[in-house]
Design goal:
GO terms for molecular function: FAD binding; monooxygenase activity. The chain is an alpha/beta fold and 381 residues long. The chain folds into 2 domains: 293 residues, FAD/NAD(P)-binding domain, CATH 3.50.50; 48 residues, no CATH class. The protein is built from 10 helices and 16 strands. Strand 7 and strand 8 form a beta hairpin.
Length: 381
């Protein structure tokens, strides 16, 4: 009789979100497997910016101390993306990551409602089905496969919209030391071209240059400013109108991350996280930190249901719905920042975003101090 391999959770993608989610689940004692389409771990991109909210999550995952070389109290720091990927991967048990497994499509088994994941080589990972002469039971599928996500396509999320931004990033190494302050430096010209610099250590400096495309920028900004000032004064004391504006904004948000309805972010026992759920504008600098938050919250929600109900199938949906509920307003917040930075949204959408940020999130920098909660939360039985 063939041995059955019990795998509670499949995660697609070994980016920062996928590995952080896998590690969070591992810390909660939930076995999982991470599938990666390439033959090696993906560490594309020069660096990753971690905000205070991101450091909180890394501490919850137990790897914050391993990254202390980059940390300077509770501020924004930059690190090599490959270093973060390596530390997250090395913290996982051997065999957690499976390379060379690309998922092309996802369907639900009509009998069990478990996800069936079609792989590039024609094989399938399916609950109680053969896979390379073994049996694998899959209960939950989490798509952390970035913007062009096969899992997001299965969930029918809105397609991503290209950002009107051209950016170049890189590192400069100063063998004798750079002499810059260990802080973020930024200059801009006419709000179209921006240069930023952030030292990583005493010799290595991360930098970027970007240019935004702003059609009709001057009259657009002027009209927006006038309307926001007048409209916000009218609705500031009308809770019902604020509520309607919030629902209206959530219907179309985010332009880069595809919808906020919880029934779209979850189908059966399938959901998404990270860029597959919410693509972040690089100028917001929250892509990595927000993705790590997703992993912490998702693991906490699944662990709560597994502890109380021992993972009966019907509870997967409840756990994933709780995850979506906890992340919804956070995604709205960050997506509003994205919409204000981007130059392409319709004027009305831009006005609504501005008003909501003024009324609900008055401190622009508060998004960096956000606390998604503890991974080790205690739940009452």
């Amino acid at each position: 009789m063939e041995e059955m391999e019990e795998i509670e959770i499949f995660i697609v993608g070994t980016g920062i979100c996928g590995l952080a989610t896998a590690l969070a689940l591992h810390r909660k004692g939930i076995k999982n497997v991470v599938l990666e389409r390439s033959e090696s771990l993906r560490a594309s991109g020069a660096c990753i910016t971690i905000r205070t909210n991101g450091w909180r999550c890394l501490d919850q995952l137990g790897v914050g101390s391993d990254l202390n070389i980059y940390r300077r109290r509770a501020e924004t720091r930059c690190m090599r993306r490959s270093d973060l990927i390596r530390i997250l991967a090395e913290s996982l048990p051997l065999g957690t990551i499976r390379l060379g497994c690309q998922i092309l499509s996802v369907t639900l088994d009509p009998l069990t409602s478990y996800p069936i994941n079609q792989l590039q080589n024609g094989s399938a990972i399916h609950a109680k089905s053969r896979f390379n002469l073994s049996l694998i039971r899959s209960q939950v599928l989490i798509g952390c496969d970035e913007a062009n996500s096969a899992v997001a396509h299965f969930l029918e999320l809105k397609p991503k919209i290209l950002l009107s931004l051209s950016e170049t990033r890189g590192f400069t190494n100063y063998p004798s030391g750079h002499g810059f302050k260990m802080e973020f430096f930024q200059v801009s010209e006419d709000d179209n071209i921006m240069f930023g610099r952030l030292p990583i250590d005493n010799k290595l400096v991360y930098w970027f240059v970007n240019q935004k495309i702003k059609p009709k920028a001057s009259i657009y900004s002027l009209v927006t400013c006038i309307l926001v000032t007048r409209i916000s004064a009218v609705i500031a004391k009308d809770p019902e109108l604020i509520h309607k504006l919030t629902l209206e904004s959530m219907k179309d948000f985010p332009t880069g991350s595809g919808g906020h309805d919880k029934k779209h972010f979850r189908k059966g026992s399938v959901t998404v996280a990270g860029d597959a759920m919410h693509v972040m504008d690089p100028l917001v600098a929250q892509g990595g930190s927000a993705s790590i938050e997703d992993g912490v919250v998702l693991a906490r929600c699944l662990a709560q249901k597994s502890r109380i109900n021992f993972f009966f199938t019907a509870d997967f949906g409840e756990a994933l719905d709780q995850y979506v509920k906890e992340r919804r307003m956070r995604v709205v917040w960050l997506s509003s920042l994205h919409t204000l930075i981007d130059s392409t949204p319709p004027l009305l959408v831009r006005i609504i975003c501005t008003i909501l940020l003024m009324l609900l999130f008055s401190d622009y920098a508060a998004h960096t101090q956000y606390d998604c909660g503890r991974l080790w939360a205690i739940y009452m039985m």
